[in-house]
Amino acid sequence: METITKKELVDRIADQTGSKRVVVKDILQRFLNEIISELGRGNRLEFRDFGVFESKQRAARIAQNPKTLQRVHVPAKRTVKFKVGRLMKLKLAEGMEGASGQAQAGGDVAPVKPTPPPPAE
Questions:
Q1: How many structural domains are present in the chain?
Q2: Which domain holds residue 30?
Q3: Is the pTM above the cut of 0.90?
Q4: Predicted pLDDT of residue 32
């Protein structure tokens, strides 16, 4: 398993679309900021075939320190839940069935058509 950074994703998308890395990075960051904003407002984000992000409220509870066995109060908090979508579920299952145990690039995902750069202002 490999960790893919935002920079690597930006590079891939820029190469695939022929767009400048700066533009792709800005768009990706704006997209991520919008996800954070909407989840912060308590909204649910649904991306067909990819998955659903939801903000959930976790109830306050009493936990126990395993070292001292002392009971501690854990306050209520909001967290994010992600439910995997259909296409991602299929790709993950496909990756598990592969001989190498890794998902193969490409597959069922449609290639992204290059978009022309925005007109210069």
A1: 2
A2: 1-43
A3: no
A4: 96
